Amino acid sequence: MSVPSTSSTPLRLMPGEDLRDALQAAVRAKGQQAAFVVAGIGSLIDAQLRLAAADRATVVPGPSEILSLSGSVGADYTHLHMSLSDAQGRVWGGHVLPGCVVRTAAEVLIAWLPDWAFSREPDPATGYAELVARRRDL
Length: 138
Fold this sequence. Notes:
The chain has 1 helix and 8 strands; from the N terminus they run βαβββββββ. It is mainly β. Strands 1, 2, 3, 4, 5 and 6 form a 6-stranded antiparallel β-sheet that branches. Strands 7-8 form a two-stranded antiparallel sheet. The longest helix is centred in the first third of the chain and has 11 residues, at 19-29.
């Protein structure tokens, strides 16, 4: 995949690519430290989601269609949320986990934030590693 140099980039992910890994690779290939996935559609096979307040993955078996995809991507992490429909039209939603493999294609719009660096750091108020956005010295 080639990543053009603009403020936002439409990407087409290919069959067999892991959704999270491919987006992380795009950020690294562009030499960026902060980006947002603005929108995404496409199809997956055996999608892996972490539902709200769940401790482990839920597998949405078989083919599914991405209805919406958004989130933040840093140089070393990815935090994405997605809604998708399974082959029976049921809608699922949650955190995108590794193992969301593209079935036919995924079309994703990434907005680049070259003046920023993202990290995830423990937040005592929530008990989770949360987004920290810092201005970069360019």
